[in-house]
Amino acid sequence: MFVAMIINIEPLNDYIYRIVLSFSHPFIFKAGQYIEMVLPCGKSGYFSIASLINCGRNIELHISDTKNSNSIIRKLKVGNEVKISQASGNAWLRATSDRSMLIVAFGSGFSYARSILLSEALSNSSREVYFYWIMQSKESIYELYLINSLPERFKCQVFHYRDNTKSKYDIGRVSGREHTLVNIFP
């Protein structure tokens, strides 16, 4: 485990926060990987890294606030130290591949995608990238400017999730509410 200091906490929307951690040395990871964060009280959670690769001593996480008193975001304070695991996970950017790439994210799952998108955008690759991001509401979407600034080889779509609670369906073993995805771009 590594020790990191929380140097910034800021809201990105009404329930997702940007947390910036600073290490005493460069933190090595691959775009798309995640870490485990352990608080001094022993509470822990797993979070995808939202930063560019080779970003030096600071990394960025996007963490959802579950709005309950046990939410990890409510226990984080600027200046506090936390323990961080080595980066893990196999859903990382294969920078040497020339194959097209499909990235799908839901809600705060954008953080792993953000790391991959930014790292790929700065590469010399010419491969096509297809990115789909699904959010709970239009108001929840953040960093749209970043998505709009990606190179033309990136085909990006951002959707908000709409629950049509009045239209129930029941088809055999599957029942529930009808859900639709609404593209925010005309």
From TrEMBL:
Keyword annotations of the record: Oxidoreductase
Lineage: superkingdom: Bacteria
Any one GO MF annotation of this record: oxidoreductase activity
Domain FAD-binding FR-type: start-end pairs: 1-94
UniProt xrefs under Gene3D superfamilies: Translation factors
InterPro entries recorded: FAD-bd_FR_type, FNR_nucleotide-bd, MRET, Riboflavin_synthase-like_b-brl
Transmembrane segments: none
Name assigned to this protein: CDP-6-deoxy-delta-3,4-glucoseen reductase
Organism: Xenorhabdus kozodoii
